[in-house]
């Protein structure tokens, strides 16, 4: 017998994901960033702070985004003056990503906005339990 929607984990996850995405979009709107722009900017910024300058493929893999879509979003971030693409001295076909000063100023503010939205969204669930469950769902092979 089929489960009712209120008893279906997949249906509940779908609705929770939609609500979370709306919350994140609302948090990022004042910063003029979409969610995927935020993910790529924040990841590139973090890697740059660690002394790494990834190329587009490496950033896409780390962010879990499609390579072609990543290219389009990086182009938008470049037009906004938040990142620069530099020729990789080791492979002139590849472009290494460097977050600009403007991007480096915006990234931590965007991260803080997303973390506040996450804290509100996940408040009903103890943080350690949310992380454990979501980690198991995101990486079932672990």
Layout of secondary structure:
Layout (H helix, E strand, L loop, with lengths): L8 H20 L6 H15 L6 H8 L3 H13 L3 E6 L2 E9 L1 H22 L4 H12 L4
Antiparallel strand pairs: 1-2
Helix pairs in contact: 1-5, 2-3, 2-4, 2-5, 3-4
Distance separating the two termini? 32 Å
Strand content: 5-15%
Q: Helix tally? A: 6
Please report the total strand number as a whole number: 2
Gross geometry? globular
The string of secondary-structure elements, in order, is: HHHHEEHH
Low-confidence stretches: none
Helix content: 55-70%
Adjacency order of strands in the biggest sheet? 1-2
- Tell me the radius of gyration: 18 Å
Largest sheet: 2 strands, antiparallel
Mean pLDDT: 94
Give me the secondary-structure category: mainly alpha
């Amino acid at each position: 017998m089929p489960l009712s929607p209120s008893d279906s984990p997949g249906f509940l996850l779908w609705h929770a994901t939609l609500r979370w995405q709306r919350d994140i979009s609302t948090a990022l709107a004042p910063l003029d960033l979409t969610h995927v722009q935020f993910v790529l900017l924040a990841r590139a910024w973090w890697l740059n702070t660690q002394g790494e300058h990834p190329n587009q493929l490496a950033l896409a893999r780390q962010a879990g985004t499609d390579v072609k879509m990543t290219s389009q979003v990086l182009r938008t971030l470049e037009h906004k003056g938040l990142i620069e693409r530099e020729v990789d001295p080791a492979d002139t076909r590849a472009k290494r990503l460097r977050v600009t000063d403007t991007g480096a100023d915006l990234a931590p503010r965007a991260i803080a906005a997303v973390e506040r939205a996450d804290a509100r969204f996940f408040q009903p669930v103890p943080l350690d339990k949310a992380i454990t469950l979501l980690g198991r769902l995101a990486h079932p092979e672990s």
